[in-house]
Amino acid sequence: MSHDHPHEPVTTAGEPPAAARVRALADLLVEKGVLGREDIRRRVDWLVSRTPADGARLVARAWMDPSFKERALDDARLAALELGLEPGESPQVIALENTDDVHHLVVCTLCSCYPKALLGPPPDWYKSLPYRSRAVADPRGVLREFGVELDEDVEVRVVDSTADVRYIVIPRRPHGTESFDEDALAALVTRDSMVGVAEPVPPG
Amino acid sequence: MVGEPRPSSISVVTRAVHDRGGRPADAPIDRSEHDLADWEILMDSLENALEGRGVMNTDEMRRGIESMAPSDYESASYYERWLFTTETILEEKGILAPGELDARLAS
Amino acid sequence: MTFAAGDDVVVSSRAHSGHHRTPGYLKGRKGTVLRVHERFRNPETRAYGGDGLPKERLYLVGFALSGGDQVLADIFEHWLEKAA
Asked: Residue B91, Cβ neighbours under 10 Å: how many?
């Protein structure tokens, strides 16, 4: 399922009881003046606008520009702003660089913290109990399930987002992309590669 | 230190239900995904709008989720947990009266 | 106590009822400070309607996993002690 497009609201028959409850809650809060319809609409618009394209742009620029990459490793929030991207409300975003020696993988064992301004909403598996349990105990097993097999001499670093810092992975740049421009590079960067459970798409 | 429980032997019983890291989990990771339903997008937006207005904050939101009965936490869907915490915190703050939302749904 | 990158630390294994962001699997574990973050509001008090002030230092700490791998996590200063 491609997640490189803005989410379209989906209505399914057989919604859970929670659906009606949420709508009633929204109506009640607006009636009470706790929120305005406009507050809610702005947030809806923001959420559905979030896709991995912004994260991919940050990665592509990091691949092309080593000094930008260094800035992203130090402060990806500022680096994103440099590109005119919205880093989101997290006070701090940090990019983690995968190299030939180190592979990063991101999780939130306590809830679901995720750089959603740059990647869109997190996928169900990221929020799932098994991922949250196993990523920090058996990262190589988890990676294997996602189809990633790493050499023994590569160090895996699992980053548990336990506080207000958000983490985005800069995956390794695929070989054979030396002549690619930024758009072509960004097209190779998948959401999963920016969480650390996949490598980017190799050039066709 | 002799006799002191090693961290790896600290039972999951002593941890709150939301604290999942390292719990025994033989279950494979279900990689199927679903696009967010309308009501889920609304729930996400509602909660963030409340935070944006300063009505509640992220830490209260998390604390509310963590207060769910363990079996409820584990069986609820992601945004059902968000609904639970939003109702809980709003009631705690006196913004929602107990039963007010139920009455609204019944009417 | 303030820490610097490279310091060996231990995560406290004290019991804490109520909201906190130090995961159980790291309590009592020894690690190394990899990065000193800014100071952040304390979620333990913010979660109960407080303002979370004064802000407290947050550290990215690395903990060894088998096979030379690591798990990294952001831990607040008051959960860390200098390793013996």
From this structure: 16
Domain map (residue ranges) of chain C: 8-82
Q: Which domain holds residue B81?
A: 45-107
> Tens digit of pLDDT for each residue in A134-170?
999 999 999 999 999 999 999 999 999 999 999 999 9
Checking if the pLDDT of B1 tops 60, the result is no
CB pairs under 8 A between B and C: 43
What is the distance between the alpha carbons of residues C6 and A199, in angstroms, rounded to a whole number? 30
Of B21, B50, B101, nearest to A132 by CB-CB distance is B21
Tell me, yes or no, whether A2 lies in a domain. no
- Residue C5 C-alpha, separation from nearest chain B C-alpha, in angstroms: 24
Q: What is the pLDDT of residues B39-71, one digit of tens each?
A: 999 999 999 999 999 999 999 999 999 999 999
Average pLDDT taken over every residue of chain A: 94
Mutate which of A22, A48, A105 to test chain B, going by most B C-beta atoms within 10 A? A22
Q: What is the pTM of this model?
A: 0.93
pLDDT score of C1: 81
- Determine the structural domain holding residue A24 and report its residue range: 17-49
Mapped onto helix, strand or coil, the DSSP state of residue B65 is: helix
Neighbours, chain B (3 or more CB pairs < 8 A): A, C
Question: Which CATH number is A133's domain given?
Answer: 3.90.330.10
Burial status of residue B24 (CB atoms within 10 A of its CB: 0-12, 13-18, 19 or more): exposed
**Confidence category of residue A171, pLDDT binned at 50, 70, 90:** very high
| CB neighbour class for C50 (10 Å; exposed up to 12, middle 13-18, buried from 19) | middle
- From A25, A42, A123, residue closest to B33, measured CB to CB: A123
Contact C24 B10 (CB under 8 A): yes
Domain count, chain B: 1
Which residue out of C19, C21, C40, C57 would a mutagenesis test of the A interface target, given it has the greatest number of A Cβ atoms within 10 Å? C21
ipTM entry: 0.98
**CATH number attached to the domain at C8-82:** 2.30.30.50
The one-letter amino acid at B18: H
